[in-house]
Amino acid sequence: xxxxxxxxxxxxxxxxxxxxxxxxxxxxxxxxxxxxxxxxxxxxxxxxxxxxxxxxxxxxxxxxxxxxxxxxxxxxxxxxxxxxxxxxxxxxxxxxxxxxxxxxxxxxxxxxxxxxxxxxxxxxxxxxxxxxxxxxxxxxxxxxxxxxxxxxxxxxxxxxxxxxxxxxxxxxxxxxxxxxxxxxxxxxxxxxxxxxxxxxxxxxxxxxxxxxxxxxxxxxxxxxxxxxxxxxxxxxxxxxxxxxxxxxxxxxxxxxxxxxxxxxxxxxxxxxxxxxxxxxxxxxxxxxxxxxxxxxxxxxxxxxxxxxxxxxxxxxxxxxxxxxxxxxxxxxxxxxxxxxxxxxxxxxxxxxxxxxxxxxxxxxxxxxxxxxxxxxxxxxxxxxxxxxxxxxxxxxxxxxxxxxxxxxxxxxxxxxxxxxxxxxxxxxxxxxxxxxxxxxxxxxxxxxxxxxxxxxxxxxxxxxxxxxxxxxxxxxxxxxxxxxxxxxxxxxxxxxxxxxxxxxxxxxxxxxxxxxxxxxxxxxxxxxxxxxxxxxxxxxxx
Length: 542
Known about the structure:
By secondary structure, the chain is of the alpha/beta class. Helix content is 60%, strand content 11%. A five-stranded parallel sheet has the order 2-1-3-4-5, sandwiched between helices. Strands 7-8-6-9-10 form a five-stranded mixed sheet, with helices on both faces. It starts with a strand and ends with a helix. Residues 441-539 form the HTH araC/xylS-type domain.
């Protein structure tokens, strides 16, 4: 429905117009009325109409002045002039300044008015259609130009462009805000991006990346000349033009300030961290690919120094100082401590291994070889004890592949430590169960196989072939807990595994593990773990 503004200094004429048509049934509505041009322009500051029907002779700003101002400020508005005077000069001036029709008031009736409005509607729709087409063309051109910019920057960073004249020409042609000398390149990567890709859909990850770019661009707008491009999944490159030469300390502080702002904003809005590797000053754009390689190499220091860092000195990125693997003595010591369920000794031995990795500054690949040996010890111990691998590794992950997803040494170490602790807890439970009577074993077997269903003391007693009172007493003496409490322990442990997998919603997990009431599940879970189910889920995501 199109909006119409009536402008006339006579209230009678305005009333005649308002009552001449059933406006809304005709597809129009009167959005306002003004007594002269000045009043009309004031109303239009709050609500711009589609059509203005205006008188010519008015005090203050007359119709001709209003037409001229509308043509200048609101060219999309269609103007119809009404007048009591059959004056050719008025007609000529009105049409020249932008009015689409000129009608004498005494000749105006409902039919004439509706014809004029319909003609104006056709003109408005044609204008909007043409505008939309042009906007679409401009959008496609903009996308194409953005792609060309991205491709050019990518080639520049790869070193596949060497001619200075070609580079300068492309920068000017693509309107890239970048100098050709005194540049710094920053290599950027979102931390734990592989885990982000697992948790979200491809579309959600694309939105995630675009949001990261939008936040970064908004902050980089405050730098005189800078560029950011997405180089690969979760990785980016930033190029800063430094202008006149400054001291390295000044450059260091300025770049660090901007990167720290980005780091703070993405943590605030996306709840993620990122790491940055910053090159030294590149004095010639033809050598920009060397600066990018330097920045990427500096970024590798993240493996030892940790995530969410800004690394700016190439001297911090040392080469590997050597190589080692676990010798027989180390393997035997770890294996023996593991079999004895001596976690303190295991922890001490693994700490020593990772301290050596850190002191030698081994690369991620070299570290993975050593960690594979540590995983082999776990697997061998499990096999010897008759433990299924599914008890150790969740969500069907192959441990060697899972290990490669971790980007920093500390995360790999934590994962290995957790794996060893998990195995020791299973071994302790097995040792404990070996000391139990056959009746208690029968009770545990029934509960393990039926925890998803309603389980009663009578059901367990019948399966074990004894009375309810007898099995209740024996179970409590041997396990230091009642059958109901043990059942809840089993259900909570399975619930924790589901949360670690991250495949089911919490309400589905509650039902799947045998709890019929969420509030009861909440109470039991918190008593046993010290945290709420939601808090545990958040811990798993981290």
